[in-house]
Amino acid sequence: PQEPLQLPMPRDPRARDLAARLAADPGSQEPVDVLARRVGASRRTLERLFVAETGISIGRWRRRLRLVEALRLLAEGEQVTTASARLGYATPSAFTAMFRSELGVSPRQYFAPATR
Known about the structure:
Order of helices and strands: HHHHHHH
Structural class: mainly alpha
Number of strands: 0
Strand content: under 5%
Distance between the termini: 20 Å
Oligomer: single chain
Helix content: 55-70%
Mean pLDDT: 92
Largest sheet: none
């Protein structure tokens, strides 16, 4: 079964600030611990807030953010290699593995013209 791709936003101001920082640079490799200090909360507090308010962990939220951005980049014609680098993946194969685990198909299959 397919479920809509959603990126729920947390309500707590600290968690929203963290989400905004992640969204501003989806490819950033900055550790969540560092970002948590910048928004004035511990990682543990933010993890609890994210799960309570979005239903997913910060790591899962960040991964979903990167997936949403990947879909946008690829739909605009960006190559997988370029998109994967822009989103912080070490290799295109790591990016493709994430994409496949989230959507069940590779980027190439996802954007292949439908055959009838």
